[in-house]
Amino acid sequence: MHSRTRITSVIGPVHLPDDATIAARLRTMAEAGPHTRLGLRPSAHDNRWTFDPESCAPEVVRLDPPTSPMELLDSASQVSQVSREDRPTTVTVAGNYLRTDHNHGLGEVALTLMMNEVILGMIDPADPRVWQPSRASRSGITTAALRTYGSDPRRAWALRRSLDRTPRPVPSGPVEPWTPDRTAAVVTTDPDTVRSLRTWRDQNLPSVSMYALTASVLHRALADAGLTINPVATVTLDARRYLPAGRVPLGNFVSGLEFDLGANPTPSRINEVTSDAVAAGRPVANLALNTMRTRIGLRINNSGAYPISRPQDPQAQLLFSSIGPVPRQNQVPWLAGASPFYSAHNDPVGPEGITLTWAIVEGAVATTASFHGNVFPQAAVTAALECAATDPFAFLSSVN
User: What pTM was computed for the model?
Assistant: First the structure.
């Protein structure tokens, strides 16, 4: 479903091994089996992928140290305009920064984090116990669906009610020619502000998740910066929660659900719709439906190519995605005295897409906006994220 797009991550500054060690660790990971995803050759044209760890092993590239880690994201954006099936994964070392860039069809954040841990020596890819959760049988959509709806048939009725409220697409106006221009903006909310925001949440909206609070602030900040926001936004939810304990597939297992949030959504509104969707099992149903649509599209030779036009008056289609705390970050060999940087940069969905991804690193929240710079000005998006990061309370004065 995602094999025409890329995912890029940048982490640093960290102590990195030499290139040969990195290549050897990744080769060991690829050779461990197709469940590690690295040895697969992805294709956007069929679902019978080949396992060829020798030719698909990640390429290791070395660049000069960047003056800013944003340089690595900007240069990766140029390389990732085309989803390269011949080189599914590329690893770049630039000074004390590490960049991974892989075909989204191989997997999402779970795979990205696992690659980082292997490269940095936090886990041993030769240890078969490392891959047990990802190679476990009964880890697919069918298992998740049976556990979700078989354990509580009432969820099926709740799912139907939830689907009845799914927003319908609205036709766009005049269009103009367009080509992709993958762009990123990254900001960090310092640990003190994060703690203050969590305290504010506990005092004012104790039943609301920090996910909903963060999404509401970002939504309002982008609108305040002058962007026209589509009232229908996408919220990504990890479907691994519906699998048995110890099952962690490294392939794509996250579902994007659309909700009509309105022009000025409150944290309570976002929390309500996402909580209802999770309780009804909508992430599993959505994954199954999208998989079926993809298979049908392959059979009728649906190319799924990127659009060649965009609306003249674009409406930002926001997609919210939270990584949460980066796993085992206390084991990351951070460079002493430097501020940790982490960014996960996904290809935006369509010309009007703005994907907002955030992760917690060393108590700070790193937020990345992925979008097309020829549709939305990078300066405007960056300014919005900076306002949200430095003074999130300015966007919470009217919540209820």
Answer: 0.91
- Cis previous bond, 351, omega within 30: no
Q: What is the pLDDT of residues 140-171, one digit of tens each?
A: 888 888 887 776 666 665 566 555 555 655 65
Whole-angstrom distance, CA of residue 20 vs CA of residue 226: 48
Amino acid at 219: H
Neighbours of 290 (CB within 10 A): 15
From the list 144, 134, 217, 137, the residue with the least C-alpha distance to 393 is 217
Tell me phi and psi for residue 9, to 5 degrees: -130, 145
Say which residue the tokens 């989803």 belong to.
83
Could you tell me if residue 138 is left (phi over 0), alpha (psi between -120 and 50 degrees) or otherwise beta?
Answer: left
Q: Which helix (H) or strand (E) holds 323?
A: strand 317-325
CB 308 within 8 A of CB 178: yes
348 burial type by CB count under 10 A (0-12 exposed, 13-18 middle, 19+ buried): buried
3-state secondary structure of 353: strand
C-beta of residue 378 within 8 angstroms of C-beta of residue 74:
no
